[in-house]
Amino acid sequence: MTSNFSYNWTLKDANFTKDKGKVFSCFACGGGSTMGYKLAGFDVVGHNDIDPKMVEVYKENHKPKYSYLESITTFAKRKDLPKELYELDILDGSPPCSSFSMAGNREKDWGKEKKFREGQELQVLDTLFFDFIDLAKELQPKVVVAENVKGLLLGNAKQYVIEIYKAFDKAGYTCQHFLLNASKMGVPQRRERVFFIALRKDLAPKFMESVDIFTQLPKLELIFNEKEIPFKEIDEPNTKDEYLSPSISKHWYLAKEGQGFNEVHEKSGMFSYSKVDRNRALPTITAHQVGGSYHHTIHRPLTKSENCKGGSFPLDYNFLKLKHKYLIGMSVPPLMTGKIAEQIYKQWISKIK
Fold first, then answer.
1. Which DSSP state fits 342?
2. Are strands 282-283 and 66-69 parallel, antiparallel or unpaired?
3. N or C: which end of the chain has fewer CB within 10 A?
4. Nearest CA among 237, 220, 222, 213 for reference residue 297
5. What is the rounded distance in angstroms from the CA atom of residue 206 to the CA atom of residue 211?
6. Among 146, 145, 141, 147, which Cα is nearest to 203's?
7. Among 57-61, 78-82, 95-99, 312-316, whose mean pLDDT is lowest?
8. How many domains does the chain have?
9. How far, in Å, CA of 275 to CA of 282, rounded?
10. Mean pLDDT, to the nearest integer, of 106-114?
11. Residue 2 lies in a domain
12. Catalytic residue numbers, as ranges
């Protein structure tokens, strides 16, 4: 499945047709998924997020009709939402996922109330997904899309997936999930994410010609196998060396191209630092304040435009006072969502309409 979307783009030159349906985005951060829906022709009418700084950036770049700065737990209980939000084609969300990430504490954090940078409120992260499904039950959009980390499919977290399916079923939806890699979807970044995509049950008869005879539920097909875009295609080779801390600099010189700093560290530390491989897509861009990818021949971290292209973010995106790497690392790559949204429209929504 291919499209004409490009990782090298700008907001000012984008053509957002807004003719494919209406979307509302929860846990919207700076709008990575929002831009994907817009690229696919959807009208994103509003968003919700708990982080005031993210909401500020979102408003600056997307000018939403509806904006809600509050937790999903509070938002899902609202009874004063506008009628337009009860007429959505897609309800989108990326419930916080750090407690299931393989880079986090996983089981040690499950069920615990913690403060997180986003909003600085006490939250139990592994219950927010169900608050999001409660919102879907209330609003009854045609389709629900929820993005999360690969770690959700591993180990003991599999039971959590079963509970997600049960919750969608009780909310009136049939659900399926997909593990997708952004590097096979036209994004110059190796980023694996799980997407739960649910269709409202009463719409299933409209797809009877494509229904699975065993489950009696319509299947969405998402198969992406585009050629990987290597770092050398987004490289800025004419930039200059920059100052790096003594420790980072030391291990930058020790590491070979494509090698993690932990491989040359005397105590196997600095595992989140690496030199890029010019012939591979970037490794996952993370929101961490420390670590990340460094150029393979120039003594520097990646530039803003290299990270934007690697995350398929528009080059003219206004990050305000937030660090670009943090916001890109927190967001779904726009092209990733865009290509999924394109298929949801072609296979489902266009037939419903």
1. H
2. unpaired
3. C
4. 237
5. 9
6. 141
7. 95-99
8. 2
9. 10
10. 45
11. no
12. 97
